[in-house]
Specification:
By secondary structure, the protein is an alpha+beta fold. It contains twelve helices and 15 strands. The protein folds into two domains: 129 residues, Aminopeptidase (3-Layer(aba) Sandwich); 237 residues, 3-Layer(aba) Sandwich (Aminopeptidase), CATH 3.40.630. 37% of the residues lie in helices and 26% in strands. The strands form two sheets. Strands 7-6-14-8-13-12-11-10-9 form a nine-stranded mixed β-sheet. A six-stranded mixed β-sheet has the order 1-2-3-4-5-15, sandwiched between helices. The longest helix has 17 residues. Keywords: Acyltransferase, Cell shape, Cell wall biogenesis/degradation, Peptidoglycan synthesis, Transferase.
């Protein structure tokens, strides 16, 4: 049965996401309001009866001086990827999307479906680091290989899609490797028991020292941003402006009052850590974090993570997602500290399909890639 792709309303888009149980927060309509520098469109896949069976948020970025666009679906689209078993089933999903985007003057498409290909448990990773078995996740035998995800990658490559870059570190776009804590079927006590001894000790230490974690309001965003800017200077990354977080909070909260939460960890009234938590149905994310450079011995970062994870569990989420990691397992690599911190939760490293490109106009697509590289 053939499918068609058309523009859908925000309500239609949200209703489909609700029917699926979850989707990336980058694939809900409100995210288009956050990314103001892009033009956004909600699109839906419709069957012969007009029923929406897939959805995606498309962000369009114009190439300078030319009215042609890169069509980008971050962590999307939301489709029945498990039904992709051969070239024909892949074309059934993607051909109508490409045709629609081409009609919108797209010169190329970039998408990164949340399709899992491999998983590694904390135990497997810690053993590999201890024994020096591997310095990359890619070289480490996974605990789970998803054949459906592997099949999608194989078919996309054969269909002319360009696979993700294998360069070290964080590439532009969304992370291919993330760290997640499964919550479904587990009690709060189970989750705490799953933490390593250091994490449990740090959570108790923060509590005993009087570190308090509370939910903030929009009025607390400037304090979060000041701490976030300090973190950016310390850790050598470029911070986003305060207005970005104000827009994010307003847009996501107006779509669903439980979508966005700001957390504040204070000691004797002093802000020591602050984070942003986002939830779409059964999936909750640790999205942004900031921490002070002093009083770190009070372990505010562990306390605030435990509060976010507990709230995700209470809200009925099946997954708490600590977002991106690189695939390094080398203690000498500056990115290793990120996965080392997250390993303490007893979760798992997850490899997604990654972001794939399809040039529609090869010349314009290459010119755009050169333009981004220069920026």
């Amino acid at each position: 049965m053939s499918l068609t792709v058309r523009t859908i309303t925000a309500d239609e888009h949200l209703a489909f996401v609700a029917s699926r149980g979850s989707a990336s927060f980058l694939q809900v309509p409100s995210w288009g309001q956050v990314k103001k520098e892009w033009r956004s469109e909600s699109i839906g896949w419709c069957d012969a009866d007009g029923k929406i069976v897939g959805a995606g948020l498309v962000l369009y970025r114009q190439i300078p001086k030319v009215k042609r666009y890169l069509a980008y679906l971050p962590e999307g689209p939301v489709l029945a990827w498990e039904d992709v078993t051969d070239a024909a089933s892949l074309r059934r999903l993607l051909d109508p999307m490409v045709a629609h985007l081409k009609s919108r003057k797209a010169f190329g498409v970039r998408m990164g479906p949340m399709v899992v290909t491999r998983r590694w448990s904390s135990e497997t990773i810690k053993a590999a680091v201890k024994d020096g078995q591997a310095t990359k996740l890619q070289a480490l035998t996974p605990d789970v290989v998803d054949p459906a995800g592997q099949k999608v990658a194989e078919l996309m490559r054969a269909a002319g899609w360009i696979p993700p870059s294998t360069t070290a570190g964080f590439a532009a776009g969304q992370p291919q490797y993330v760290f997640q804590v499964p919550l479904a079927g587990r009690t709060r006590e189970d989750l705490l028991a799953g933490f390593n001894q250091q994490w449990r000790r740090n959570i108790k230490k923060a509590d005993k020292a009087g570190v308090e974690v509370t939910e903030g309001t929009e009025a607390d965003l400037p304090a979060f941003h000041a701490l976030y800017t300090h973190t950016a200077e310390r850790d050598h990354f470029t911070p986003r402006p305060l207005s970005y977080f104000q827009t994010m909070m307003r847009a996501l909260s107006s779509e669903d009052p439980e979508r966005f939460k700001l957390y504040l960890a204070k000691h004797e009234g002093e802000l020591l850590a602050s984070t942003i938590w986002i939830r779409v149905g059964g999936h909750a994310w640790y999205s942004y974090g900031a921490s002070a450079s002093h009083k770190r011995e009070l372990q505010p970062s562990n306390a605030i993570q435990w509060r976010m994870l507990s709230d995700a569990h209470e809200a009925g989420a099946a997954v708490y997602d600590l977002r991106g990691i690189t695939d390094t397992l080398d203690p000498a690599d500056p990115h290793f500290g990120l996965i080392q911190f997250k390993l303490g939760t007893g979760g798992q490293a997850v490899e997604y399909l990654g972001e794939w490109d399809l040039p529609i106009n090869a010349l314009l697509f290459q010119a755009f890639r050169l333009y981004l590289a220069k920026r």
